[in-house]
Amino acid sequence: MSHLIAELVFRATLETLEMVFASGAIAVLGGLPLAVLMLVTSRRDLFDMVWLSRLLGTVIDALRAVPFIILLVLLIPVTRLIAGTALGTAAAIVPLSIAAIPYYARIAEVSLKEVDAGLVDAVRAMGGTRWMVIRYALIPEALPGLIAGLTVTLVTLVGASAMAGAIGAGGLGDLAIRYGYQRFNTTVMLSVVAVLVVVVMSIQAAGNMVARRLR
Amino acid sequence: MSHLIAELVFRATLETLEMVFASGAIAVLGGLPLAVLMLVTSRRDLFDMVWLSRLLGTVIDALRAVPFIILLVLLIPVTRLIAGTALGTAAAIVPLSIAAIPYYARIAEVSLKEVDAGLVDAVRAMGGTRWMVIRYALIPEALPGLIAGLTVTLVTLVGASAMAGAIGAGGLGDLAIRYGYQRFNTTVMLSVVAVLVVVVMSIQAAGNMVARRLR
Amino acid sequence: QSNTTLRIGIMSGEDEDIWRIVSTNASKSGLTLKIVTFSDYSTPNQALSEGDLDANAFQHGPFLKAQSEANGFKITPVGNTYFAPMGLYSHRWKSLQDLPPNASIGVPNDPSNEGRALLLLQTLGILKISSSAGLLPTALDITDNPRNISIRELDAGVVGRALTDLDAAVVNTEWAQKAGIDTIKERIGEETLQNNPYVCFIATNAKDASAAWVKPLVSAYQQPNTRQALLDVYHGAIVPAWT
Amino acid sequence: MTPLLEIRNVSHQFGDHSALTNVSFSVEQGDILGIIGRSGAGKSTLLRCLCALQKPTEGEILLNGADLVSLPERALVLERRRIGLVFQHFNLLNSRTVAANIALPLEISGIPSSRRRARVKELIEIVGLEGHENKRPSQLSGGQKQRVGIARALATEPVLLLCDEATSALDPETTASVLDLLAEINRRLGLTIILITHEMDVVRRFARRVVVLEHGKVVENSPVVTLLSDPSRNENIAHLFPDTLIQIPSDQKAYLQTDPFPASEVLLRLGDTAASLPSALLSELGRNFGADIRLLNGGITQVGGRNIMDMIIRLPVFSPEIQMFLKNRCQTVEVLGYVPSDR
Amino acid sequence: MTPLLEIRNVSHQFGDHSALTNVSFSVEQGDILGIIGRSGAGKSTLLRCLCALQKPTEGEILLNGADLVSLPERALVLERRRIGLVFQHFNLLNSRTVAANIALPLEISGIPSSRRRARVKELIEIVGLEGHENKRPSQLSGGQKQRVGIARALATEPVLLLCDEATSALDPETTASVLDLLAEINRRLGLTIILITHEMDVVRRFARRVVVLEHGKVVENSPVVTLLSDPSRNENIAHLFPDTLIQIPSDQKAYLQTDPFPASEVLLRLGDTAASLPSALLSELGRNFGADIRLLNGGITQVGGRNIMDMIIRLPVFSPEIQMFLKNRCQTVEVLGYVPSDR
Ligand SMILES: Nc1ncnc2c1ncn2[C@@H]1O[C@H](COP(=O)(O)OP(=O)(O)OP(=O)(O)O)[C@@H](O)[C@H]1O
Ligand SMILES: Nc1ncnc2c1ncn2[C@@H]1O[C@H](COP(=O)(O)OP(=O)(O)OP(=O)(O)O)[C@@H](O)[C@H]1O
Ligand SMILES: [Mg+2]
Ligand SMILES: [Mg+2]
């Protein structure tokens, strides 16, 4: 692998990491509250506003239904508004986040649902408000699952970030497509895929470790 | 919406459903055993072959690391071998499944991990073999989570199937991209996205219902 | 001449190598080129018209026309780059006449390539396309299909590789070479080079068409070293389109 | 004085299964109430209703006059902070250590962290979990979990403590020390305690009043002494006290006949709940009537500070004088039957 | 005869915490063994080791001579099918109904479904869960869950039954009926039972031998009669029997002095475990010495079919003759102290 390619791969790795972790962080910040809201409004013993839960579910499903490449383009004006430009790595974080938020919301919801009702009861019985139920029971008890879900989300983002090449975001996936798929440069493709495998495995290993420590 | 477009959308819907459900089914058939294997080999009280669990994890992560469009192309020979042709809706099921299997394996693993160790103990104490532990404790007890995970996988497949347009698989996502997005036909794009939203919401609603009944 | 920085949008792939040379050429005339690569055909024009780019170089006239009509872009070509001929290839059949009824023919599925491929098939007398479809027809615009050919719309990168699964396929020469097709022996039809509208060019927003940096930019491209690079990089699959 | 807690016509349905039907009773401030009843009688459901964890299908639950069922969320939360609840299945948070579990109600009530630490330390000592502070609940034994649950319920010094079988997983010594602790808080601070238990010994030694549930209905509500002195009085509850109903030893039972026969002796059951100084009954019988009176089973036990006599004796003769003497000295004298004198 | 189960030098560590240290004992076929000990003593850990759910860090567990710890998986599975285990925390599968939970061990042992159905029906009746067959475990009360656990453990008619506090959530009546059932199976089929319990009454009435664990070590291993007749013999275990150690009533205790004084009466504690026909001691005392002997606490109880005497009496005089008489008639005579005769 020539020096030039090594440099390309190195830059692309940074770009991928930037996109994945930035949008992953935003996915948690946006998706977790949505998931919690969806859950607590659906439960009789908490907020009991099934209509709101349904509404949120609908919005989330609608966002998830739009193919990412279309979302990418439809969101260009929004991206420009938020990021100042519609092109490049930083700009790609906007559509990636907007795709990842509903995705993580659904994944987080699965884990939150599994929390033993007895623990919600316990916090309620102590005189905990509904907010405290979320803070002391739902989130901490679901944490191993939430982390595992985040791991899945991050890896999915690695895949999605490849498509962000469409708006000039660069990154490993884009490099693999450009050199590997479009130019049949097997060396580059394999080395890029190798780096991708390392990135994915590191994310997975880190996620597993954190989840295990919490369990 | 003209008659022609309605017909296009209708055919694309069928194609999408065919791809999503066929590869979803294969994802479960392939991914669930992998997830189970990964879990039971990692556990001291079951198969205790951590190396195998690690190996499986590595293979799964490696597969997940390859961007789908590249997988699509790399797998053309495999697809041809399995499906007889590398093109079309039926052929697309091969790469979609191969992408979905490791994806579902990781998602299913999260739910399987949450099963109370006491229930594994219960089946063991009755003289259940390790296979019976899987059959009577791990899978049934994780079922609500496994179903919720399948829902997430199916919706992700709806997104991925859009890319399968590259090998002439058709489907709603491809229609939205090619006719709506690339050829600026907003009517087609919006109607296709509307159908996609309906498909995704139906999958989600069905998944929620099944999971709720099992919980 | 003052140092100007330009953002140029191109498609990812070999073009990046060409533009690396162009950048070097341009720096001699005081231009700093920032190359932005795209893997999707729809975005570069939008990015250009919205000011995220100063120029782009990836398209031919028919494509630009269609995009401008749909989106109201005010983009004009300012200098030719190259011409990439298309051919009809087959592993199974020796000539056009051998093509059986109900044969399947693969075409690229992106708007400009698909239209061009269909028009090639029309030129070869295999089918007829509605005249109202203009330069960007799709399989839906076929009006007459005497041999009942089935058209398979595939990703440009896939058509060549999927030739085994097809009776024939229309493939850009560059892709055909990469897919391991013998572009001489397996070709059963090709584009006529005369008056071909599919010459690629550098484009800018109409308001910038006479900007001071346009001429130096175009001439940085139309250099002998670029010509050589085009021939090398594309292994003869494309033809430089300036004299 | 209005009662601390008043339950009025509470009913609860699970689907078409009535878990509680028209339950009414009240609890005075400072009282210790035992709730007993068969498995599945509705005890846990009732306890959950008492802190509005489960809204009953019907009825009112008045705590200091305020109806918990209809109280708005904000006020309900504050009321609950004055109630401690020990769950039957512990319900400990596995995301927290033992110490952090015990600290949780303090955090919820907004106690500053320095005072929290001191209080947690004190509670850990009280329930004997020193050295386990940093374990997770999943690393504890059953009884240790239960003690964490008890410590957690006591943390905020509630005015009302609800215990759902809070000592079922504890050994007798730990049970006794927990009950002593509760009794002391009850005496010192007037803590009101409602406890569900299956251990009649706990009821006997600890409770003042008892409510008995049967198929979701209250079938008995009386002071513990009344109940224990003669559980057979109420046929609905006799089954709950198999150990209080002293049995005829099986070797005697085999020969038991209902009518006297030659060379037979009589089996009597004597009961009394009132004697302030325990009776010298047996020795008096021997002295006054010259008979060998055999104590077959039972004797004297202490219930709520009173001496309860319940015993089965065997007499060679049952003359009218003896009968008169016993009737004078015991509340109940029951002839159980006759056995051969050589057995 | 080789014992059914032999535990040899079993130790288990959780990290650096020793839950079991060098535990050895054996259990004969058909025996009923009680394991008791303080909360956290290691009882549940030991039971889990007994069916190799937890591999002990050290030691051997021989079931019919085969060491479960080193047995290969295939053989271990078959051995376990002959063992029933009732878990302290029930461990029911919530994915199955009550009936299906009970059927599970039958499925596992490959019993055909028709026989399965009949057996499940029978078991449901035995544990009194008729009408709850189709509920999920989450819809059951604590005691109902426990009964499902018991039915499940009995389903395949095991030869060895391990119970971890299997009656802790049951009311006395249900407890008694479950124990009666177990005793009957034990008699009829020679079922060997090992049960952990905190209810001394269960030990008293049900067990034949008792193993006492303390901090993971065996501190007592003896027949239940020996143990109960004088728990104070072993200071390690006295705390487990607070209710067996009969107390001096508190109203008397207040006046208790260690030495005699004018107008004082003596408090004696009398104990005996051997009397085959209960003693007529008190009436004889009255008859022979003309004294009013007061029974203050205790009396006769039946343990494992034998009559155990344990009582505190009060005598106006404690002449050498009386002393001689009592020494002749009781195993233990202990002077507890003196109280004023007018109290
Ligand atoms: N997984 C674990 N990790 C660490 N320590 C443990 C674990 N399980 C049990 N222990 C500790 O081992 C000791 C013995 O536990 P065990 O459950 O055997 O007690 P036990 O005698 O059954 O008590 P109880 O009567 O309260 O149920 C306890 O001190 C407990 O804290
Ligand atoms: N979620 C539920 N759904 C349906 N039925 C339920 C539910 N919870 C409890 N029950 C039923 O209600 C009845 C009362 O249950 P509860 O838990 O109050 O009994 P309990 O008196 O506490 O019994 P135990 O002493 O066994 O704990 C039982 O028959 C039980 O099966
Ligand atoms: Mg209960
Ligand atoms: Mg235990």
Automatic annotation (TrEMBL), chains A, B:
InterPro entries: AA_ABC_Transporter_Permease (IPR051322), MetI-like (IPR000515), MetI-like_sf (IPR035906)
Entry's transmembrane regions: 20-40, 52-76, 82-105, 142-168, 188-211
Subcellular location: Cell membrane
Ranges for domain ABC transmembrane type-1: 13-205
PROSITE patterns reported in the protein's UniProt record: ABC_TM1
GO biological process terms on file: D-methionine transmembrane transport
Keywords associated with the record: Cell membrane, Membrane, Transmembrane, Transmembrane helix, Transport
Membrane topology reported for the UniProt record: Multi-pass membrane protein
GO cellular component: plasma membrane
Domain of life: Bacteria
Main subcellular localisation: membrane
Family of this protein: Belongs to the binding-protein-dependent transport system permease family. CysTW subfamily.
Name of this protein: Metal ABC transporter permease
Biological source species: Gluconobacter wancherniae NBRC 103581
TrEMBL record, chains D, E:
Entry-linked InterPro entries: AAA+_ATPase, ABC_transporter-like_ATP-bd, ABC_transporter-like_CS, ACT-like_dom_sf, MetN_ABC_transporter-like, P-loop_NTPase
Keyword terms, alphabetized: Amino-acid transport, ATP-binding, Cell membrane, Membrane, Nucleotide-binding, Translocase, Transport
Gene Ontology terms, MF aspect: ATP binding; ATP hydrolysis activity
Cellular component, GO annotation: plasma membrane
Pfam families cross-referenced by the UniProt entry: ABC_tran
UniProt-listed GO biological process terms: amino acid transport
Protein name in UniProt: Cell division ATP-binding protein FtsE
Organism encoding this protein: Gluconobacter wancherniae NBRC 103581
Underlying gene: metN
